Amino acid sequence: MSSITINLISGRTIQQGVSMEGGKEKNNYRLACGIIEMDEADFKKLGIMKNTNVKVSSEFGNVVVKAISATQGPHPGMAFIPMGPWANKVTSTETYSTGMPTFKGVTVTVEPAPEEKVLSSVDLVREYCFGDN
Amino acid sequence: MSKTITDVVCPFCGTLCDDLIVTTDDEGKKILGVDNACAIGAEKFIHSSDHSHRVTRPRKMQEDGSFKEITYEEAIEHTAKILVNAKKPLMYGWSSTSCEADSVGHEIAELCGGIVDNTAAVCHGTTLIAVQNVGIPSCTLGEVKNRADRIIFWGCNPAHAHPRHMSRYSIFPRGYFTGKGAKQRKIIVVDPRPTDTTNLADIHLQVEQGYDYELLQALRAAIRGEPLAGDVIAGVPKETVYEAVDVLKSGRFGVIFFGMGVTQSLGKDHNIDAAICLTKDLNDYTKFSIVAMRGHYNVTGSGQVLGWQYGFPYSVDLSRGFARYNPGETGSIEVLKRQEADAIFVLGSDPGAHFPMRCVKEISRLPSVAIDPHITPTTEICDVHVPVAFVGVEVGGNCYRMDNVPIEARKVVEPPEGMMTDQQFLSAVLERVKELKAN
Question: Residue A1: its pLDDT value, please?
């Protein structure tokens, strides 16, 4: 199966902020943050259609999110997941003795996962904490 | 009939907009409309007013993972006991609440020998380290509005994260010396992506992600007239760097606003050191200031209260009976990674959503309590969830804007009947902790 390696950053989007204030347990939060924004060129490299679920993996973990076209771009070679538990499944815990994790600039691999489901924030966190992971 | 409340303060981001107009029903129980707020601020007011989606009494997690309602008295007892029984409880959050509540929480931490840490741990903590390293030439947002004709947004995207910042202070407003508003200002945005903020820029420095330090130092060298080696610096053509320098030096008053793009990328506090030194260098030619784009509406206030009580703005370890501070050791992320805390208390933040997941798992293993008006990933993994009134909506309190200006948040509607505020809950826990310690 095809995969690409890409530089991941995270951050706020207005949709993330609005859905967060509307309730993180709700579906709108999953729709706003359980995504990865990728450039057109990277979609071509990966060989998938837009709005396909993908598995994003780093040395720190993996997560299933929906791949969508970059809303603010172009940014080939770089991907964006809005701040939240989905991004934090793969983000770096390395703080380099500053206390601050490296939320921006994590090397990740993206591969198609059309059969897998994007979990809600609560299910994602509870499965990771209380499940077999 | 409805009531209109003017000059309401928005409890979302560090911009702390204080010109909202909120319309409530006649009894002051339900919010009917919010004017002047951004989409996020309006959603916060409207969501808080819809009590049908809110948890209104404390809940305790059962063995099967479900929650059972308990009384506030039982929640106070649980919280006091886990804190008293712990050797090194981590007390995290403090950024989405008032300074008054923060102060009560710190007294509990002192009595229990806890670590007090706020959300700077995962946003502007490295900024605070840099400020301690090299100082900070800063100003208020009022000065920005009235004087600034050069604005840099470095590693931040206010169009999404601080939606009214640009219209109230930094790009569009007409001030005393800035009567032509946006026409009088030159905007430089530094971001590895084209964003909705870069669309408003005169110059977009599309820095290669993680190379902010190089670009900052190149700007410093160019300002001094030093030659730059290479045609492309940190992904930016050399000519564009010189162009940016000319714009900066030709202004009368400039401000650098910076965000997570520099604090969370590699280089961290060294990036901010360089940004502050760039500000200092620019003061040889014109007047320049630098302001951090703080996220939570009162993360600045939490730092202020910790600062005047203990001398340190975050990651304060009180476990030895005196205040210690070394963010690379006493910061929440490192403490959780080392599995050093033996209980966790969360108030006014959601580490379950915003900490790396390895740290979240550690939280779920500890005796825990989460105090939050919302249902969040944190409340769903903690032993006890205590819902409280929304500060800035259902109870007032002191907050600090991103430029360290204190602003009193206002109460606009009543909380659900019988619901405690942060401060009331903390005060009750403090009393119980004192009783347990006395015995």
Answer: 66
